[in-house]
């Protein structure tokens, strides 16, 4: 594990989505040691309650709160943001970590392809809804879990929801969403310029988690076969934690991070015209037009 200095987070509030498994769960355990008030967001009542109990037992842990949210649905994201605002009234670190790949294309009840709804819309909407809590802090951080899958990704501007073309067992839609994570992060850092809020995207590496186990026996078999080259979840979570709470990450913004240092993203991920276009479309898809105009 890379050596870095954890800030004391007593009195500060950290929210992490996708916290009940894999990278998110490991990151939550590491962050709990700082004394932060920790909000862990999961979809399952049982797994979230189990995680909260685990975190209460971590030496040095502060207040731990579990929140249930299906992040694929914007209505639930909005309810989550309302609860955070009512219960906590501040936010010092937001970690958008929940994500998945789906081999079969399905549409949510709100009309969005599942991968796009979870991996991009949820990031954009939750950050937008909580922006004032972040900007209102003297120092705050946004950390978005991305992936090197973005290297093969492209934005299908005429078909973001894959209604016209095949998603190739979910890979096209997934890699597009991970490219969107990096573009969103770069544009977010641009919007936050002049504030004391930083925004960075993280590539955790190929991690041994439950990722893709929802996609049938072939996907599960592939995960088993590739296990020798997979990282442990502790290593995968390391850069997420570093970006969120380390002294060394202070002031770093707009970067794509891997192994606790900036890494060059793909050429498409550095296209700021594409980042601005994605932002504009995201405002329309999440009905948040104008919410960032004051920053």
Brief summary of the model shown:
This protein is α/β, with parallel strands linked by helices. It has nine helices and eight strands.
Topology:
Elements: E1 13-17, H1 22-32, E2 37-42, H2 45-56, E3 64-68, H3 74-88, E4 93-96, H4 114-129, H5 131-135, E5 140-145, H6 171-191, E6 197-202, H7 217-225, H8 233-245, E7 256-258, E8 261-262, H9 272-285
Parallel strand pairs: 1-2, 1-4, 2-3, 4-5, 5-6, 6-7
Antiparallel strand pairs: 7-8
Helix pairs in contact: 1-2, 1-8, 3-4, 4-6, 6-9
Helix and strand run? EHEHEHEHHEHEHHEEH
- Number of DSSP strands? 8
Helix content: 25-40%
Largest sheet: 8 strands, mixed
Let me know the CATH homologous superfamily. NAD(P)-binding Rossmann-like Domain
Report how far apart the termini are.
37 Å
Shape: globular
Which CATH architecture? 3-Layer(aba) Sandwich
Radius of gyration: 18 Å
CATH class: Alpha Beta
Strand content: 5-15%
Structural account:
- The protein is 39% helix and 13% strand.
- It is of the alpha/beta class and 295 residues long.
- It has a single domain (13-285), classed as 3-Layer(aba) Sandwich (Rossmann fold), CATH 3.40.50.720.
- Residues 211-231 have low confidence and may be disordered.
- α1 packs parallel to α2 (45-56).
- β7 (256-258) and β8 (261-262) form a beta hairpin.
- It contains nine helices and eight strands.
């Amino acid at each position: 594990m890379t050596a870095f200095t954890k800030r004391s987070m007593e009195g500060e509030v950290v929210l992490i989505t996708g916290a009940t498994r894999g990278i998110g769960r490991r990151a939550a355990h590491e962050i709990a040691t700082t004394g932060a008030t920790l909000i862990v967001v999961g979809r399952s009542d049982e797994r979230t309650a189990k995680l909260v109990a685990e975190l209460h037992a971590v030496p040095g842990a502060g207040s731990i709160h579990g929140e249930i949210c299906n992040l694929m649905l914007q209505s639930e994201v909005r309810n989550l943001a309302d609860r955070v605002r009512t219960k906590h009234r501040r936010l010092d670190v937001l970690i958008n970590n929940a994500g998945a790949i789906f081999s079969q294309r399905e549409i949510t009840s709100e009309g969005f392809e599942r991968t796009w709804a979870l991996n991009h819309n949820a990031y954009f909407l939750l950050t937008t809804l909580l922006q004032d809590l972040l900007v209102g802090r003297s120092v705050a951080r946004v950390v978005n879990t991305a992936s090197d899958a973005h290297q093969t990704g492209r934005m299908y501007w005429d078909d973001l929801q894959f209604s016209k073309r095949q998603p190739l067992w979910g890979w096209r839609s997934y890699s597009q969403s991970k490219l969107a994570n990096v573009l969103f992060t770069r544009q977010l850092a641009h919007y936050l310029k002049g504030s004391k809020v930083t925004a960075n995207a993280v590539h955790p590496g190929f991690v041994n988690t439950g990722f893709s186990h929802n996609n049938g026996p072939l996907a599960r078999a592939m995960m088993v076969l590739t296990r020798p080259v997979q990282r442990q979840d502790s290593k995968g979570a390391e850069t997420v934690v570093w970006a969120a709470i380390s002294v060394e990450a202070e002031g770093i913004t707009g970067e794509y991070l891997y192994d606790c240092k900036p890494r060059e993203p793909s050429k498409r991920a550095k296209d700021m015209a594409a980042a601005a276009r994605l932002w504009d479309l995201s405002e329309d898809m999440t009905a948040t037009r104008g919410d960032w105009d004051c920053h």
